[in-house]
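Posting for a labmate who doesn't have an account.
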Amino acid sequence: MKKIGSFIIFIFLFFSFNVFAQEKTLSLENTLDIVRKFHPIIRQSNLQINQANNALLSSRGVFDPTLGIVGENKTFDNKQYFNYYNPELKIPTWYGIDFKAGLENNIGQRLDPSLTADKSTYVGVSLDPLRGLIYDKRRAAVQQATSMVKLTKQEQLLVVNDLLFEATEAYWTWVNTYLLNNILRDVLKTNQQRFEFVKQSFEHGDRASIDTIEALAQLQFVQSMQLQAALDLQKARFLLSNYFWDDQAQPYVFGAEIIPDTSNKQFDYSKIEVPSLNNLLDKALSSHPKLFAIDSKKDMLEIDRKVKTLDLLPSFKFNYNFLGKGYATPDLFKQSLFQNNYKYGVSFGLPLLQRQARGDLAKTKNKIAEIDYARKLTELEIQNKVKSTYAESVSLVNQINVSEQNYINNKKLLDAENVKFTMGESSMFLVNSREMKLIETQQKLIALKTKFFKSIVANQWAAGLLR
């Protein structure tokens, strides 16, 4: 019951009803709204963005404060060798300095000499002044994850851009087959009426038998064309149905009761303005998601380059603890840090030849150079794609104007030939020839118009602007 209700809501939300004909009119705008809201590919891309955000959240976990407790006890032959107890709080920071504070309670007959006996407290710090303060792998991991979120969002925009354009192509293919099928249905009715007229004229002795054969042959030929057009319409409907899903992630296949919007509001090409080429190029180069995706990839490589550069520096780690007796809070201001009650340590390391670090850094620099070339090539491809779709739109306007005049002239010729035929001054052959030429002209005109509407959306697609 819930599923049926969702389909009803789906219908009322996105289809315009013709009350008298009981038909539902579907516009391109409504089609794209359905795709944006319900298509599983878009929902899947949203999940990928969520995954990238989750990865970012996970990468920030390296800066989470941690509370740990270490306890160890050894008793042998009724002797307590040692009993260690050490709770500690560690607080990592963004700039590579880690703070820590803890308690110690170390008792036993054989304690480790490096440990403080009985109860004590400490606060301390650890850092790498050469590698950690400038940059470190923890910060790099977070920044890499941030760039990955940006990359995933741009990849989603690319998916949406391509998907909406594919749906647009399927929609106008459906419109083209729908209009052609309607034309052939009307032509079929005309041929049926003409055949009956010629047949009756033959029976009354006004026409030769060859005229009835020609009328029947034309009727059968048009009938064959109409059957093929009906099949093409059905296939186009199935193709467009690939983009129709409901809110329950179930495919929605619509039938013949849904028709495309062919009103002047949507199908009048003269009301459609071809966008400015310079404007399209500016938008494409400034906001195309493919370019932003390349930039995000380069950002990730730049982060990797910083990390690889740090590997060329020596590793110098410094640890310091200020100690206090008992469980009292150590007073850092009563004495200098290296006067009494302290513990510190340093470690230093430097590979002498640095071959691994130099090799890794060189590889990363090569990848950055590669991606710079890739961006230049992508810019050129986008520019040429925009210019190509724009040129097609401009050309189609001129072709439509010529084709419309051609259609008007062929319509006049057919009308005149029909008048002459009814007066007995023309043959069935000439009428059929005029009619086929008119059908051919109509078919071409419809194809040009639907192709023009596709090209208008193709301009937005080429510039990466479909959202």
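Reply:
Got it, the structure tokens are right above this. The first strand starts at residue 16 and ends at 18.
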